[in-house]
Amino acid sequence: MMFDSKNLLFGTGKYLLGFTAILFITAICLAFSVNYNDDFANSRREVLMRRIGHELLLQNGDKVSRVMPVKKIAENEYQIDFENKLTFQADSLVKTTQRILAKDPLVSEYVVNVLNPANASIAYSFAISNTKKDDIIACIGRKQPTANYTINIKFKPKGLQIEKNRYLLGSLPFLAFIGFIFFQSAKPKKTLTAAAQDANLISLGNVLFDAKNRKLTLNETTIDLTATETRVLLIFAMAPNEIIERSRLQKEIWEDEGVIVGRSLDMFISKLRKKLEIAPNINIVVIRSKGYKLEINA
Question: What is the DSSP letter of 69?
Answer without folding.
Answer: P
